[in-house]
Design a protein that fits this description.
Length: 123
C-alpha cells in the first residue's frame, strides 16, 4: 500500500487549496478513504471520509461547508478541496485507507495504510 499526498502549502486566510492523495498497491475502488489532520500539540482529527463509491461522505463540524472530499476511482486518487481556510486549519493533512477509527489517535504512527502527510499553513 502506498499513499502519497500533495498540494499543501502556505495560504492566506480565506484562501483555497486542493489536496490530492495518489493510491497504489490495493484495490482503491473498493475502499473507503479518510483525510485526517494533526496540528502541533493537538490530537489527530478526522477531517472527512468517503465511501468506496464517493457518494457517502462525512465531515468534521469544523470544516462542513468549507471542505469537499471527492475521489476518482479511475485515477486511484482522493481529493480534499479546502476553501475559506482559517488559521486553525493549519496542520499536517494525511490520507488513509479505510474508515476513521478512534484507535488512530493513539496508534497513528503505527498505522500502515496512511501517507506521510502534506503541510497546510494558513497565515
Amino acid at each position: 500500500v502506498q499513499l502519497v499526498e500533495s498540494g499543501g502549502g502556505l495560504v492566506l486566510p480565506g484562501g483555497s487549496l486542493r489536496l490530492s492523495c495518489a493510491a497504489s498497491g490495493f484495490a482503491f475502488r473498493t475502499k473507503a478513504m479518510t483525510w485526517v489532520r494533526q496540528a502541533p500539540g493537538k490530537d489527530l482529527e478526522r477531517v472527512s471520509e468517503t465511501d468506496s463509491g464517493g457518494s457517502g461522505t462525512v465531515y468534521a463540524d469544523s470544516v462542513k461547508g468549507r471542505f469537499l472530499i471527492t475521489r476518482d476511482n479511475d485515477k486511484n486518487t482522493v481529493y480534499l478541496q479546502l476553501n475559506d481556510l482559517k488559521t486553525e486549519d493549519t496542520a499536517i493533512y494525511y490520507c488513509a485507507m479505510g474508515r476513521y477509527s478512534d484507535s488512530w489517535r493513539t496508534r497513528w504512527d503505527l498505522y500502515k495504510f496512511r501517507g506521510q502527510g502534506t503541510q497546510v499553513t494558513v497565515s
